[in-house]
Design a protein that fits this description.
The protein is of the alpha/beta class. It has a single domain, classed as Flavodoxin domain (Rossmann fold, 3-Layer(aba) Sandwich), CATH 3.40.50.360. The protein is built from nine helices and six strands, in the order E-H-E-H-H-E-H-E-H-E-E-H-H-H-H. Strands 1, 2, 3, 4, 5 and 6 form a six-stranded parallel sheet that branches. Helix 1 packs across helix 7 and helix 6 packs across helix 7.
Length: about 250
């Protein structure tokens, strides 16, 4: 059974977020424990306009009125079994570009699945994606936990399953800091030097992705086994159809 992983680097530049994400994805790829298909998506160089709450997506099958990079990432997000976000801390939370994507994703999905439910029933199907989050900031206490909590809430709202790595390195996700360095490759340099905090962040990222893949395998197997019972509930139709397509 193939597990499709979408690793999203939510930084507008190439640097520390992508480094941690790559470490986690490479770790799982080299384990060969599961049949994984990995795709990495970079926010760098992309355009994501803010949601206007205009309601266009609700009337047009989830299509957004903006013409930018949203539709492409939404498509990749929908196809994946595992979503791994790796983002820097900006003002105690995720970068605005990532927040714009998440805002629009939530609204557009109501339009995407509108015809699945009775008229007036504002709900989402159980997408059952496994979502893990990695974050890093320039300082030790600069909003890493706030950012991880925001992404956990996002996973829950998307009717998906948030996961973390292994304790003690990971309580609610993988987090690190650049030891007050602004360099975009600060963590990679510190990792090569054997810096303790950076090694912990890398290990947390690796174990987080590993656990996400394990959870996705468990979920897909369970859905397949109990399809006859679950198909009676329209909330499960999209994810069950997706497993059939796989």
């Amino acid at each position: 059974m193939e597990i499709k992983i979408l690793g999203i680097s939510g930084s507008p530049r190439k640097g520390n977020s992508e480094f941690l994400l790559t470490k986690g994805l490479d770790y799982v790829a080299n384990l060969n424990d599961f049949d994984v298909k990995i795709e990495k998506y970079l926010f760098r160089g992309k355009e994501f306009k803010p949601c206007m709450g205009c309601g266009y997506c609700g009337k047009n099958g989830g299509k957004c009125i903006h013409n930018d990079d949203f539709a492409g990432l939404k498509s990749k997000w929908m196809q994946a079994d595992v979503i791994i976000y790796s983002v820097p801390v900006y003002h105690m939370s995720m970068p605005g570009q990532v927040k714009c994507f998440i805002d629009r994703l939530g609204n557009s999905l109501f339009g995407t699945y509108k015809n699945l439910f009775d008229s007036g029933e504002d709900t989402l199907p159980r997408l059952m994606k496994v979502i893990g989050s990695i974050t890093q900031g320039i300082h030790l206490f600069s909003g890493q936990e706030h950012t991880l909590t925001d992404l956990i809430n996002h996973a829950l709202l998307m009717q998906s399953i948030p996961v973390v790595g292994d304790m003690w390195e990971s309580y609610i996700g993988a987090a690190g800091w650049t030891n007050n360095k602004i360099n975009r490759n600060a963590m990679e340099k510190d990792f090569k030097k054997g810096n303790f905090d950076t090694r912990v962040a890398v290990e947390a990222s690796e174990k987080l992705v590993k656990r996400a893949v394990e959870m996705a395998a468990i979920i897909k197997s369970g859905l397949k086994k109990h399809k006859k019972q679950l198909i009676k509930d329209s909330h499960y139709i999209p994810v069950l159809n997706k497993i059939k397509d796989d």
